[in-house]
Amino acid sequence: xxxxxxxxxxxxxxxxxxxxxxxxxxxxxxxxxxxxxxxxxxxxxxxxxxxxxxxxxxxxxxxxxxxxxxxxxxxxxxxxxxxxxxxxxxxxxxxxxxxxxxxxxxxxxxxxxxxxxxxxxxxxxxxxxxxxxxxxxxxxxxxxxxxxxxxxxxxxxxxxxxxxxxxxxxxxxxxxxxxxxxxxxxxxxxxxxxxxxxxxxxxxxxxxxxxxxxxxxxxxxxxxxxxxxxxxxxxxxxxxxxxxxxxxxxxxxxxxxxxxxxxxxxxxxxxxxxxxxxxxxxxxx
Length: 285
Fold this sequence. Notes:
By secondary structure, this protein is α/β, with parallel strands linked by helices. The chain is built from twelve helices and ten strands. It has two domains: 227 residues, TIM Barrel, CATH 3.20.20; 47 residues, no CATH class. It has an eight-stranded parallel beta sheet. The chain has a two-stranded antiparallel ribbon with strand order 9-10. The termini are close together.
């Protein structure tokens, strides 16, 4: 698994922002055809987006299409599923059958255009009460989807909920995304954007909290957020060094027939070692 620590949105109809985003250290860039594009410009923005598919970029390239229930989704997918695209971001997913329908369409477009079937990734955003309620169905849809994302902006709007700085109100819903992803054998999910661009400390706290809950990365809406997201979802040098000590000490003890030891006063057994090995994998990814 190659973690997506940071996915940066860029409006598909703003060429300068797109060009800048492609050169940043984000693990992925999302060219947006949905919220960032006015209704009158949606169709005209599609060829603008596909023009950049062949340009150099630092990370993976995704396109957020319009929701399946809109009149633009089919046209969006038909326009952008082509060579140079790494994946589709599908907003406002509420049912597993929506993913299966989009997966079927992408598969046929891949075949028509000579692409390997399955090469285009698919990430649904869960951002309504119905989507959260149907997480079992969505995560078990058995499509090309490898991970889901949580969107707090539309979710709190749908719920009539205040989106506070502490985000305490989001805890059960974030946790549900992690739980259902794990139960379905998916990768850890991606966390919501942070909307207050003036509050970098709030963004950092939100990212650290999401990492602690088990998310693999965070969606970003400004270039300044990318470094903070990458840092929050990457173990620091001290954490990696301690994990290496734990693994080395345990492997020595295991070779002597022991399955539990103490290191610096900490009890260490197989679950602790597995966590340390996961840290090492993240630190070297």
